[in-house]
Amino acid sequence: MSAIECISSGIIYRNPIPHVYSKHAYFPSVLQLEGGEMIASFGIGQAFEAPDLHTHIARSTDQGETWTLEGRLYPGTTDRITSDACRLSHGENGEIVAFVIRHDRKRIDEGLANPENLGFVEVELLLFRSRDAGRTWSAPETIEPPLTGPSFEMTSPIVPLRDGRWLLPTSTWRGWDGYCPNGMRMVAFASADQGKSWPSYLDVMADENGSVIYWESKIVELEDGRLLAAAWAYDERESKDLPNQYVVSQSVEEPFSEPRSTGLFGQTLNMMQLDDGSILTVYRRIDEPGLWANVSRLDGVEWVNEGQFPLWGQRMGGLTSQNVNMADNFAVLKFGAPSLCRLADGTVYVSFWAVEDGVSNIRWLKLRVG
After folding, report:
1. Where is the signal peptide (predicted)?
2. Angle ∠(53,284,201) on CA atoms, nearest 5
3. Please, what sign has the CA dihedral across residues 178, 181, 184, 189?
4. Low-confidence residues in the chain, pLDDT < 70
5. What is the DSSP string of 47-73?
6. Which residue segments constitute the domains of the chain, with CATH numbers given?
7. pLDDT (tens digit per residue) in 227-265
C-alpha cells in the first residue's frame, strides 16, 4: 500500500489586507507546465457566492512554494452582472485550456442556489485558451451543451483522453424555477475536435427515482484504458449525504456500471491514479473533521480502501453543516474543492480553499506518496 507524507505546505493566495477590504479566495485549479512553471486559477470575491467572484491567475517559478498574483483571467462582462468559476487543463502542444462557467447574477441579493427548490442561476459554459503559458488568453468560446440542463455544475476540468478525445464531466442542475427535464444526473460532454464542438455526452451516474444527486464528479482514465468516475452522493429526499459513489467503464464507447459505494463519507472529492496503480482520493470528510487523503485500489471493479491520511483541519470544528436545507449548507462551508497536480519530481501538489481567521485562502500541501 502507498503511504502518504505531507512534506511542505503554504499559501497560494490570501488577502494581504483583510482589515481594509473583503477579498476571499475559492475553488483552485493548478497545473505544472512543460518548463517547470506552475499556474493556478481561483476565484476572488467578497464572499463564497458573491456576484463579484471572478477568476484570477497566479504563477509559481519554484515548484509551487511561492506564488505571484497576475490578475483576472479576462475582464468580464460590462452589460450585466456575472460571476464565474474556472478549472484548468492541458491541451495539445503546450496549450492551456480554461473551462469557465459564468453565472447570471441579476438576482443580486440571492446566492447561486434557490433555497426553495435547489434550483440554480442561469449559466454559460465557456472555453478560454492560452498558448503562452497562461500570460494571455483567447476570447471566450461558447460550449453548446449536448443536452438540456438547464443549468450545469462546475465540477471538473476537461479530461483529455489518450486517443485525443476530450471529456467534460459535469452534472445537470435545475433551473431557478425548478425546471429539470433530464433530472439531476452526472454526465460527461464529449469532443473529438479539441473542444470546438461537443455533440454528444456520456451518461455516468443517475438515480432514476430522482432522489440521489451526484455532485463534484470526477473522471480518471486508468492505465488499462478504463474510465473511473466518482462523485459526492446526496439523497435529497432524506436530506443526507451517502457514501461517495463510483462507476467504471471499459472504454469511452461502453456504458458505465451501476453506482457503488466507495466506503468514503465525504464531499468535493478529487482523485488520480498513482504510479503503482492505486487510486489517491482527497476529499472533505464528513464523518471526521478536515481534509483527508485515501489510498484505494480497484480489484476488478471492486473499490478496496487501504489507508486514510489526515491532511488539514482535523482539530477544527464548524467546518461543515448538516442541516436539511442543502442550499443553507453550501453557505456555511469553510473549506473544500481540492485540486490535484502531479509534479515533475513525483510529488503530488494538493490545493484547496480554507477559511482561517475569518479569511478564505487558497492553501497548498505537497505530498510524497510511496
Report:
1. none
2. 70
3. negative
4. 1, 316-333
5. STT-TT-EEEEEEESSTTSS-EEEEES
6. 4-369 (2.120.10.10)
7. 999 999 999 999 999 999 999 999 999 999 999 999 999
| pLDDT at residue 3, as a whole number | 86
Nearest residue to 354 via CA among 310, 308, 320: 320
Cell of 134: 497562461
Q: Tell me, what's the pLDDT at 161? A: 97
DSSP line for 311-369: EE-TT---S----S-HHHHHHT--EEEEEEEE-TTS-EEEEEEEEETTEEEEEEEEEEE
Q: pTM of the predicted model, to two decimals?
A: 0.94
d(CA 54, CA 75): 9
Residue owning grid cell 443536452: 147
Residue 37: which of 363, 346, 344, 350 has the closest Cα?
A: 344
Cα gap 122→32, rounded to integer Å: 32
Assess contact for 293 and 274: CB atoms under 8 A.
Answer: no
Is residue 213 a contact partner of residue 236, using CB atoms and an 8 Å limit? Answer: yes
Beta carbons of 3 and 367 less than 8 angstroms apart: no
Cell, residue 228: 473511473
The grid coordinates listed for 244 are 461517495
In angstroms, the CA 73 to CA 135 distance is: 9
